[in-house]
Amino acid sequence: MQARVHWQGEVSFRAESGTGHSVVMDGPPDHGGLDRGPRPMELLLMGMGGCASFDVMTMLKKSRQQVTHCEAVLDAERADAVPAVFTKIHVHFIVEGIGLNEAHVKRAVMLSAEKYCSASIMLQAGGVEITHSYEVLETPG
Predict the structure, then answer these.
(1) Which residues contact 95 (CB under 8 A, 6 or more apart)?
(2) Which strand (E) or helix (H) includes residue 104?
(3) In the prediction, which pLDDT does 141 show?
(4) What is the dotted CATH code of the domain comprising 40-138?
(5) 100, 105, 114: which is closest to 56 by C-alpha?
(6) How do the domains of the chain map onto residue ranges?
(7) Is the entire prediction scored with pTM above 0.90?
């Protein structure tokens, strides 16, 4: 896996993945940023949420669950000192579908957290306390 990060001036950068996708990162205005993109630490948090969501949805699809909506809401705390690393992250999954089996959702969230989500497991190894919760909703109609 590879990536390149290109300086765009001030504290703005364009990051490009090895697969050719790119995203602009920027700093806050009080640090010279123009607020043209997410902060690098926000991308790290979003990446973890994407990794965990990928796992959960893959497992639910394999267990033939009829998911109509899945959302991961992440809430993170950072250290007050430099480096301002993540200290706690809570991931709350909202899974909606038709006749979902709650046991399948619970298992998917647990397996992602404990076995499959590389980003989450890497952050935990670095001392970040990561917790998970979920709710299962029935699609109306």
Answers:
(1) 56, 60, 67, 69, 70, 105, 134, 135, 136, 137
(2) helix 102-111
(3) 75
(4) 3.30.300.20
(5) 105
(6) 1-38, 40-138
(7) yes
Could you give the 3-state DSSP secondary structure of residue 108?
helix
Q: What would the two tokens of residue 8 be?
A: 């765009």
Give the whole-angstrom CA distance, residue 66 versus residue 70.
Answer: 11
With the CA atoms of 105, 109, 111 and 112 taken in that order, what torsion angle do they form, in degrees rounded to the nearest 10?
A: 130
* pLDDT for 67: 98
1-38 maps to CATH 2.20.25: yes
The predicted-structure confidence for 84-130, as pLDDT tens digits, reads as follows 999 999 999 999 999 999 999 999 999 999 999 999 999 999 999 99
Residue 99 to residue 2: CA distance in whole angstroms:
41
